[in-house]
Structure formats: C-alpha cells, structure tokens
Amino acid sequence: MSGGGSSAPGRFADYFVICGLDTETGLEPDELSGENFEQTPLRRTFKSKVLARYPENVEWNPFDQDAVGMLCMPKGLAFKTQSDSRDPQFHSFIITREDGSRTFGFSLTFYEEVTSKQICSAMQTLYHMHNAEYDILHIPPTNDKDSCSSIEDCNGTSVSKLQRFNSYDISRDTLYVSKCICLITPMSFMKACKKVLEQLHQAVTSPQPPPLPLESYIYNILYEVPLPPAGRSLKFSGVYGPIICQRPSTSELPLFDFPVKEVFELLGVENVVQLFTCALLEFQILLYSQHYQRLMTVAETITALMFPFQWQHVYVPILPASLLHFLDAPVPYLMGLHSNGLDDRCKLELPQEANLCFVDVDNHFIELPEDLPQFPNKLEFIQEISEILMAFGIPPEGNLHCSESASKMKNLRACDIVSDKRNGNIAGSPLNSYELLKENETIARLQALVKRTGVSLEKVNLLAPPSDLKVQCDEEEFRVYQLNIQIREIFANRFTQMFADYEVFVIQPSQDKESWFTNREQMQNFDKASFLSDQPEPYLPFLSRFLETQMFASFIDNKIMCHDEDDKDPILRVFDFRVDKIRLLNVRTPTLRTSMYQKCTTIDEAEKAIELRLIKIDHTAVHPHLLDMKIGQGKYELGFFPKLQSDVLSIGPASNKWKPLNAPAQWRRKDRQKQHTEHLRLDNDQREKYIQEARNLGSTIRQPKLSNLSPSVIAQTNWKFVEGLLKECRNKTKRMLVEKMGREAVELGHGEVNITGVEENTLIASLCDLLERIWSHGLQVKQGKSALWSHLLHYQENRQRKPTSGSGDLINQHLIIVFLFRHIQNIGEIKTDVGKARAWVRLSMEKKLLSRHLKQLLSDLELTKKLYKRYAFLRCDDEKEQFLYHLLSFNAVDYFCFTNVFTTILIPYHILIVPSKKLGGSMFTANPWICISGELGETGVLQIPRNILEMTFECQNLGKLTTVQIGHDNSGLYAKWLVEYVMVRNEITGHTYKFPCGRWLGKGMDDGSLERILVGELLTSHTEADERQCRTPPLQQSPSMIRRFVTISPNNKPKLNTGQIQEAIGEAVNGIVKHFHKPEKERGSLTLLLCGESGLVSALEQVFQHGFKSPRLFKNVFIWDFLEKAQTYYETLDQNEIVPEENWQTRARSFCRFVTAINNTPRNIGKDGKFQMLVCLGARDHLLHHWIALLADCPITAQMYEDIALIKDHTLVNSLIRVLQTLQEFNITLEASLVKGIDI
After folding, report:
1. Which residues pair with 183 in a beta bridge?
2. Per-residue pLDDT tens digits for 32-74
3. Which of 782, 840, 1082, 1119 has the most C-beta neighbours closer than 10 Å?
4. What pTM was estimated for this model as a whole?
5. Strand, coil or helix: 1189
6. Where are the alpha helices (H) located in 151-213, listed in sequence order?
7. Taking every pair of C-alpha atoms in the chain, what is the biggest distance, in angstroms?
C-alpha cells in the first residue's frame, strides 16, 4: 500500500469535534428543520454550532464545518427538563465529497444542564408567549370537554390545557440541552469509535474523575493511534478499558463494521432480500426511522451486501431536515429520513412513488415498487440465510419486539430498554427474542427445517463460547463478527455463482484507452444478449434489468480498465479470485447452465481469518499519557464535558513515526485515497475518476452540498437534475433503437421484427421508469402514485370542462389521447395507477404516437403551470423539446410492447375482405367465413355478412397476426369468388395486417379450392392514416405479393432458371435456420418463413414447376396432380417386379400415407393448398429430402417433365437434398391453422 514516501497507514482519527449550544449567540430557531411553532418551546429545534474541533485542520481531509454540524445533530439542539429521559444516543454518518471519496463520522449526543441564566429566562419567555397564543387559539366558548385539541405531544396524549403543566418553570425546573462529541475518521471502525466516545462520556458522568485528564485520551486517539494495516488487528486504550479493532486483508471482503444482525431483526429476511433487490436494480429507496443509527446501519448493510458491485447514485443515509427538498431528486437514490415517531406513513408527502421502495424500519414494513422481479433462487437463498440466523438465535421473520408497531408499549418504558440495548447501553437482553418467539409457528416450521442441518436451537448452545478460543474481544462482539461475515459470504457467493463466466462476455475495446474514454457512451462493454441466452429462464427478469444498471456498467468498465493484476481495483481482485476458484471447482461449459442452487462454501475460511486476528493482536498503540499542560488545566466538573485545552490538542507530536515529514501532501493524499479504495469501495482513484467523467450517466450528484442552502444553490442542483434527465433520455432512446435496428437489419428481407425478448421488455420498463421520474420532478402537489397518470387525468378533466377550440387536427389529437386513456381505464386487469401509466406508454409506443401524445399533453401550458414548480423539467422549454425529439425516433421501428404484455385482454378487431372488382364478384351467392390466427391464439370460424364483407368483433388478444383461413359454403347459383386480399386491423393498437390472396375460391375454378390459408404481413402504418382515425383500415396500393394470373393459373408465374431456383431454396432454408438460432423469445413468425412470399413452400413450388410439361388446351395441370400419380404408382407397384431396398420402401410408404391423409381431409382445400400442407408436414417430420430423392427416381417424373427439368438433373437434386437436410436438427412446430383436420 505504498504511496510516495509513506508506506505505513495513517491516523485512526482525523478530528475530534464538539457541537452544541453556543451561549454567545443564544437560542436561534432552526427554521430549515421545518418544525412548526405550534410545538411547545421544549419540542422545537434550535440551531447547534460546532463549538470546538481538534486539530483545526488536516490537509488530506479539509474540515467541512457545515456538513459536520448538520450530521452530528441532524435535528439541531434539543431541550429537556429533569422529568424527561435523557439517555445518550450514538449514531454514525457519512460525508461524501465531490470526488466520491468518503469520510466517516461517529457522534454521541448527551444532555448537559444549562448554566446560562440568559438561556433559561429566554426559554421561560418563549413559554409565556406560547401559552398566551395557545389560550387565544384553543379555548372555544363551549364546555371543557371539547377543548381537547388534536395537536399531538411526544407522549401521544392529546394536547389540551394540560400543556401548561408540561411547560417549563424557571423556579422549579432544571433545563438540559443536548451536546455531542464526535470523531471524524478515514475508515469506518464503528464499534471502536462508539466505545471511545462512550468511555469519554462515562468519564464526565462518573463520580470518580478519570485517571488522566480527558485531553490525554483525545490526544492519544488523534495522534498516537494508527490505522491498523490491512489484514491486522490493533489494540489501544480507552479511558476505562482496551479497545480492539481489526481490518480485513486485501484478499477478504472489504471492511464493514455495522451489525447485520440488527437489520435482520428489524426487517426480517424476506424484507431484506426484497430491499436488496430494489437496491441492485437502482430504484429510489427511502429508509424511515426514529433512530439515526438504524438508518445508517440499514443503508450501510444493504450497500455492503452488494459486493462486488457499488451503489453509484445519491447516497445520504441520514438526510438532514433542512435538505428535505432533495427527495424531489428524479434520480435513483438511497436516503434515510428521520421520523418523529408520531406521523403516520400516510402523512408523509413524497414527490414520487412510482419507482420508490419505502422502508419503515421501526415498523417492520416495506412498500415495494410495482413489477419488482424476483431475485434468482430467492427461496433457497432465504432458506440459506435463515439457517445461519437461527443458529444465532435470530428468528428469520425478524425480532418483532424491536419494531415499534408490534409492541404497542410506547408509553411503557420497556421499549426504551429494547432500544437502549440496541444502542449498546445495556449488556445482555432483558427481552429475549428467542423466548418471545418460541410459540411462533413459522419458527417451528423453520426449526424443523434447520434440524437436519444439525444446528441445535437450544439457547444454551447458542451462547456457549467455543472452548479453545481466547479471543481478545468480548463474547457478544465476537458473535457480531461471526454473523456479519457468514451473512456477507452467503450474499457474495450468490454473485460469484451468477457471474462465474462473466469475463467471457466482456467486450474489450479495440482502440487505445484515450479514445475509448471519449467514445465511452457509444461503446457496448458487455455482450448482454449472449450472457442472457446462457442463463436459466427464471433468472432472466432480474438479470436483464440488472445488466442495464449503472453499477453493473461501472463494474465492467473497471474490469476493462485494469489489464494486469497490479492496477486492479481491490474489490475486483477479490471477486475475480473467487470466480476463478469456482471455475476450477466445477468445470462446466457455459451452455450447460442450470439453476441448481450452490450453497456458500467459503464461510469457515473467512471466519478463521477474523478469529486469528482477534486471538493474537498484531499491534498495540501507545498508551495515553500526561501531556505538557499548564497547571490548573484539565479541571473537571461532574456532568459537564470540560472545555478542552486547544493548545495541547491542536498540534500532534513533533516526530510522527509513521508519517515522514518530507512526504509531500499530494502523496499523503494519494495514500489516503488508496487506503479508501481498498476498503471503502470508493471510486476515487485515477481510473474511476476517468470512468465517471467518461460515462457520467445522468447524475453527477452523489450527495447534496450540505452547506450553503441559498435558492441559487438549490436552483443549480435542480438544473443538474434536468440536464441529467435529458442525457439519460438520450442514452436510453439510443440504446433501444440500436437494439431494435441492429436486429431488424439481420432479418431476412421480411419487414418483420423479432417478438420481444426479455431484454426489450426491460428497456421499455426502464423507459417507463424514466418518464415517471421526469413527470414527478418539481411537482407542486402530489396526487396518486403515478405522476404521469395523474397528469393524464387532469388533462382529460380539462378537456371535458372546456371543449377544445382550434383546428380539426388539434381536436383530433385530443380525441385520440382521450380515446387511448379510456381504453386503458377500461382494462380490468390493470389495477393500479402506475400500471395504467405504463400500459398507456406501451400502447402509445406501439401506435408510434408516444412523442406526439406527450407533446399534446404538455401543450396545455396552464395545466403544466398549475401542476409544476418553475424549476421542473417539464417547464424547461428547450430540454422538453429535445426530450420529445428523442422520443420521436421510436417511430422508426415497430414495437409490440403492448400486445405482447397484455395477453389476456379483449381486443376489437376489424375485418375487411376485398374481392376482385372484375370477374363477377358482385354476383357471389355463397356464405363466406373466416378464421384469424395469431401468435397467442385463434378466433375460430366467424361467419361474414355476405353483402358487406366487413365486420368488427371482439376476442381475447391474438398477439401478432399470422394467418387467415378464408372460405365459403359453396351454396347458391354462383359460388365462385375471387378474393384480392383481406385486411385485419387491431382497433386498439391500430396495427393493420394484409393477407394477399389473388385467387379463386370455388369448385372448378383455379385449383378447385373452397378455402385458402393466407399468410399476412404487418403494414407499416402511415401516420396520416392514424390521424384520420377512420373506422376502415386504409387501402393499400397494389398488393405486394398477390399472384396475378391472366388465366388465373399458377403456371404463369415468371419462369426462373435453375440458379435462381437454387438461390430461392437456399434463402428459404437459411431463413428457417436463422429463426432457430435466435433466443426463443425473439423469434419471428415461422409460418411466414414456410408459406410466405419467399418461403419454403413457394421455393419448392418453383422446383416442381421447372420443366413441367405444359398442359394441352385449357386443362390446367397442378403439381398435386403429379404427386397423386406418383402415389398411385408406388401403391400399385408390384413388389416382386423390383425388390427395392428397405429404406426406399419406408420412404415410399410414408409419402403415400401423407398424400392419402391430405386427400382425405374434410377441409375443402384446393390442389395448391394440399401441396402447401404436404411441404409443411414434410418439414415438420424431417421427410422432405427423402421425398425429393424418391420423386427424382420415379418413372412418373420422366413422363411429366421435360429433359431440362431441375428434378431430372442428379447433381442439382443432390445439392437440393443436402440443403433440405440442414432442417433435420430443428424441431419445427406448425401453427394449428396449417394442419387443421389432419392427424398424422
């Protein structure tokens, strides 16, 4: 860990700080902390000041007075009288600097008697004023019973005239005020710092003065106690006893010193795993508790359990009251909000809740965002954690008595005992969780489950220490270390298992680092599609979203940045080492990935390392000693923290043995940064700074400036948010288009896009999240959970109130938005506002109207002004225009994000049949019918009104439409019908499909077919057509793939030469092969590849038509006629004449069986329809190449084909057979409509 001149670690603590009441300035109300003046003066908050700090400043960690002042006493000063409980409270905090590096603070708040007469009389005056006001406001002329007001006081009793007795009387009461002592340290040794502070406080409150003046101990911790080196333990002296801390080596999990136990007791395993999932997917997370330390413990635990990933966004575990406006941040955040224990959750006005995970820590309660995917193997994961917890006597559903709601004992003091135990003041546990929950049935179940692991849950065993151990810390502390490391190893193991092969998928940049940085945003750094196609199906919903997060991108960037072991990020080094180990243990091919749950095997080893450090302490610091103080200094008064001697504390020892004086400041800073990155999971060394600059996605703000809160600073912060949102929007739209376009380009000339994969769904879901964040930025008043949906509601109400004036086009726009809005409102399956908003976005995208609709929505400026503050994103005109412009680019591609997600809803479809204008379409007498099939189902036979040929019907979502079967019942005098094409339109999404036909339906016409199967294609809609909002689908110009026949005979197709035919076959087969090589979720329509314009059927038709002898006069001969003759030939073949080989015989039999079955079908399909059916069945059963070989040798071929025919050329036939053989490895499933009525 060498850095310049200094090779040993630095100091344990940088500053010792005292905050409290400044008697010079007196009582200053703290307006920013938002307390109202209806509170009694004792309940109000007043400004606290940093009273002293030692030393004045250290160059490697400049003192941030505002931040320290705010976070030491986040609620300001508190006053109490002798009748209130005044237990000291400990909490820790974090200060994140601009560059992302962190400093840790630990503070102990206690109460001291107020000795200043001025302050006491000021408090008395405030009470007189308060009571006078109170009497005026609250005493109605009615009887006394009603005079109870509903203002709540801290004890939960409603405030009535009783308020007076609670008041402060200078002659009778003693006034106390809060004060806090605090350590600012470079690393988070929470347990050690807590002990240091508690022992210092104890020295002031115990009747016997401490052995040495307090200055000696503070000097010792500031200047004489070093940080323990990595992998070592350190012992130093507090006022009353030794204090031990230990630091993991560089090959272990990073330093983490908060009790994981507490988080599981407060929330229970299920909630912790859900919260963990939200954090990994970078939702906004708000923790809510009365205890600052709980907020900190939960936040630090969740981020520590993410190893090897690191939270990349706003991180403020304790949000000072003056920074509440920060909850408006439209970016992912993890923040902690202090509750006063009175207000209900429903009173909490949060700006945005669509993507929010709200955690009420004290009440064991968590509110999750909608559509939260499950963490992979969640049940087995929870079981593995539960087994460990139960071995430590912690019930997996949490210790309910820790949470305020479960034990409504607020008025009793038992709850205080519990929370005191939580704050480490009472050893042992007066309310033992184990006893309380012995009766619990869930526990009984889990106990049974754990029995087989051989862990006994009897309390005696739980607390019995291992006999041969002589650890230097106390039993309880050692158990905290053990539980921490066991739980952390289980969590880390999940990621080593899940990402064991991740290196294979990292895309190394081809250019040098500099140019890679500059183009960072355009670069793909990880092959997500291939990685996901390797994963077990159940993992996909979670993983596809996780791969899109900032933390994953930064992790991969880190990987790309460090080529050799030396400059590797320490966290990455540990992770890669673990991954390599797993790969050695189970050598598996990435393709055989299973979702088998692998339990953690590294626990013992990790525990051993800690145990060894605690048994044998590596370093002992210098003991505190008398300082060179003036006589009479260091005086001590019981109950008061003394005014310390700044002259002895402000300068360290002259020769500092672990920091050479000549080491330049920059090296020391570098050393400090190194030590940060090693264990604080920071991103502030050179590489990470580079990455942050290069990638800089959205939020550059990791923590709000805790200092000057002038309006200009707030405005600047909001401006950063607006820029960040715009940038995020640009990156998201670009990413989504590249995904789409890249894949469409590969498609085989069909304008058909892949059916959505998990990944596409993920991208659209994250776009919906972004829209919700944009719509909730700068909201005036929050209504409902979805800001976007509530805006739509307002818009619709406005439209109803005042009819729109303006051009027809404008009115049309309003109608369309309202029409869509109503559609979504009527979908019974969607229950919540957030769900409705998402459905509306998906539907608008599918209709290619998202940008236009949002523009329309925002064109109502009055409404926008009413709903949003001036700084809101939606009121920044330039940014808003650019944002809409980015969304406009989605119109370039086809999305099915509504159709494919809402699969069970009812959808109206509109059908239009267009018969040929010529050739007597109007005389048609039979009754037509139609049956429509899509990827999700089919309609069954629908009768069509004969003269209208147009109808609308409703049925369950069919998905993308694939085929239409159309026919008639052959009744009446003129049962011949020439159909040009059929159009079907989905009335909700506006997708219109065209099914070209161009052939007769009728006995004795064309191939004598009474029904045909038509294969459809989606028309790329012209937005004008959408605007017309007409009831009938727009007519198309000449159909793209109609077979136009002069004599209506299939033989008049353009004749192709053998080369072109071979090419067509190659293309058709290639299309099918590619189809099967795509991930299942992204395959297009197989029917189109078989029966479409350049599908397999059409290509084989060309093969059999090549060199077919032309019919005499008017008799049409069809390929099917030839196949029937071949069938007859094989059936009547006298077995004795030729003894064919076994193989040949089976082929001939299968061929005859299929032809017979098709001829016997009850359906009235014509000869071409029968040929299509035979090809489809042959492809399904992998028989096509056998049949081609069979027919090439058949004597009937010689009679019916010219000598130049392709089927007679052995070389060509062999190459055709080889091409068709490639289909053998695929399992082809045919759509029901293609093989109806045949069971082979």
Report:
1. 16, 106
2. 555 555 677 777 778 888 998 988 888 888 888 888 888 898 8
3. 840
4. 0.74
5. helix
6. 190-205
7. 133
